[in-house]
Amino acid sequence: MTTHNNKLFIETVGCQMNMLDSELVVAALRQQGYELTEAIADADTVLFNTCSVREHAEHKIYSALGRLKFSKRARPQQVIGVLGCMAQKDQELVFQKAPHVDIVVGTGQLAEIPRLIDEARVSRQRAVAVSLNRREGTRTEVSGSFQSYDPLREPAMRPSPYQAFVRIMFGCDKFCTYCVVPMTRGPEQSRNPTDILKECRVLVDQGVKEVTLLGQTVNSFRFVEDGRTWRLSDLLAAISEIDGLLRLKFVTNYPRDMTDDLLQAVRDLPKCAQYLHVPAQSGCDEMLKRMKRGYTIAQYRDMMARIQTTLPNAAVSSDFIVGFCGETDAAHQLSLDLIREFRFKNSFIFKYSPRPGTKAFDMMPDDIPEEVKRQRNQEMLELQNAISEEDNAAFIGRTVEVLVEGMSKTAEKRGETDATAGPVQLMGRSMCDRIIVFPGNPRLAGTLVDVQIADCTPTTLMGEIVTREYQHGASMLLPILA
Ligand code: SAH
Ligand code: SF4
Ligand code: F3S
Asked: Which alpha helices (DSSP H) does 32-174 contain, by range?
């Protein structure tokens, strides 16, 4: 047997669910003695945690895999693993497209990774570990095959040591006609609130200040235990009680399940961010019907009115798909109108990408030319950016409370780490999830500060820290004493 090093390289694409899964995989491998490296060329274990939501995301991974073909020849001891949504979707097909891959591990088998890597290294046999396809068993059998993953946590893999994701639901049952997620993530299952609370407490003990609850349709959360039904609002109330936690968020919301009890919980629980991501996908009823989204624009409008009444200061963001099957110019105009009407804080805009295995792929021709998709995408983005900038400008002169996440990207790029040389550029977010950058000492990371806003772009507010004492006119300490 050839010897191998313990260096692990992992690349993660896709949504927050994948970022969380990568954290869990790395935590398990660290326990086995693996060490993370950023240099793929040094690693004898290379993992890709993949996404299938659009074709582009898959291409990216297959080209990265292609580049490894030669390095694998030089490093026969290397184990290459494809994990996550594309693994579940493509299964053995991964080996056809990338013959040097050793293991293919679906979203429900991530807990088996340490064993699968060891076995592949010794036997040099390929292995596939995936869940049942949705029609391959009863609902209970299929759900069971997307087993839950024991939450060993790994602080080093988080976006910042003060922020963490917590999964509250697996899978999705909505079956929007364009979407692969119900196939790649399996049936919708809510996690036990006792486990969720335990995980949140562990995270807060590790220093986490902000928890983001994750689910594909997070507000569909429902768990019945001892005759009591837990809704997302009940869970938010229970998690809010954890001392030391400063903020609580949840994504992604499904418009039809945006109930009043949830909006009231967000209003009444001071730790809840005043921020809701509720994708509309289109402004046209005909498109929504073809997408099988389960609501009309009138219903979405009613939901927005309820949000605005209960949470007048909340920011709402959305996702849109442009160029879906049969999208006319008039339908596209209706999506633009929706952005104008609701002035979303931001919108993620995607060009429709037909996905094998979905209803739209089988039943509806992808009839909008790429060039038209591109133009519509551009038009939506420009409109949304103009609105985001206008609404951000309304913050100029105001003071907002910011949870400091750490250094800004610019400061990191410039390599500004030496606080003794003066303040560096920090970044954090407001209660309504706006990104704020300002000068300050990096030790403020993980704390709440008040920042007075002086300038903005469509995506960012810029300002200066103001101390509360100063604001209220209380005496300031002399700099010499400070
Ligand atoms: N569960 C979430 C998000 C799922 S995927 C929700 O229901 O909102 C994230 C976004 O990707 C979706 O909101 C949708 O806008 C986009 N998306 C999903 N499938 C797509 C496809 N086939 N082509 C283009 N965009 C897609
Ligand atoms: Fe996909 Fe629709 Fe489920 Fe979101 S709700 S994950 S878009 S099927
Ligand atoms: Fe992609 Fe899977 Fe998330 S398909 S968007 S990584 S659930």
From this structure: 55-74, 85-90, 93-97, 113-123, 139-145
pLDDT at 478: 42
d(CA 407, CA 423): 10
Ligand 2: residue of 146, 176, 282, 324 to mutate (most ligand atoms within 8 A of CB) is 176
78 Cα: distance to centroid of ligand 2 (angstroms): 36
Give the nearest ligand 1 atom to 281 CA: 15
Continuous segment of H or E residues that includes residue 299: helix 297-310
**Cβ 85 under 6 angstroms from ligand 3:** yes
Contacts of residue 460, defined as CB under 8 A and 6 or more positions apart, other chains included, come to 392, 434, 435, 436, 437
- Say yes or no: 63 and 202 in one domain: no
Asked if residue 2 is part of any domain, the answer here is no
Tell which atom from ligand 1 comes closest to the C-alpha of 319: 15
Q: Are residues 186 and 307 in the same domain?
A: yes
Cβ neighbours of residue 386 closer than 8 Å, sequence gap 6 or more: 458
Specify whether 122 is located in the same domain as 250.
no
Ligand 2 pocket list (CB less than 6 A): 172, 174-176, 179, 181-182, 216-217, 254
pLDDT tens per residue, range 455-467: 999 999 999 999 7
Is residue 251 situated within a structural domain? yes
Do 368 and 431 belong together in one domain?
A: no
| Residue 152 shares a structural domain with residue 133 | no
Domain count, the chain: 3
- Indicate if 270 and 387 belong to the same structural domain: yes
Question: Ligand 2: which atom is nearest the Cα of residue 185?
Answer: 6
Does ligand 3 come within 6 angstroms of the Cβ of 181? yes
Query: What range does the domain containing 132 cover?
Result: 7-143
**Cα separation, 261 vs 310, whole angstroms:** 10
Specify the pTM.
Answer: 0.94
Whether residues 255 and 366 share a domain: the answer is yes
Q: Is 171 in the pocket of ligand 3 (CB under 6 A)?
A: no
Give pLDDT tens digits for 349-372: 999 999 999 999 999 999 999 999
* CATH assignment at residue 357: 3.80.30.20
